[in-house]
Amino acid sequence: MPRSDETFQQIRDDRRTQILEVAKQMILEKGLSSIKISDIAKTVGMSQGLFYRYFPSKEDVLITIIEEATTELKEKASIISQLKGNSYEVLFGLTEHLIENFHENPKRNQLIRHGLAYPGKAQDLANEASTLLQKQIYEIIVKGQNDGSIVKVEPMKLVVIYLSLMQGLASSLYFFKDYTDSNFPDIDTILRTFKA
Q: The pTM is what?
């Protein structure tokens, strides 16, 4: 019995997902500049020519990976507008969501970092998501300083501290998972610097 168009599309989608998963792992292990399309194709079990039917270049693979990662990050960032309470409570809720996200997918943050390091569209996508998050955190901090729930320190310095803490925690979960999981600080401890 011949295969239907839906079956062919499912096979194609599965193969594309397989390419992306292999590429993610290779990027995390070696960095994009150290891998070749032939490496990805060989690991997936396909010819280089077949690879090109899915992606025109390894940069396009990275762009697709970064698009997926930043879309998820933007969706998480949109949660901010739905959080209730004073600004410290909103920052607490955002931190809770981000940490949950780090635990669910510790690789995502590292892949976005690779996107930031690679000039072109991938870098633009990663910068766009980072800028959105940075802007939202800045607005929460300024509002919190006005409502008295967040300490009065230069807002951009607090943004840098916050993003550095989040980046450090995300990296620790990726690189030192067992140690970090068993010693992960609670959100009150993480945000102690910010509370007025």
A: 0.74
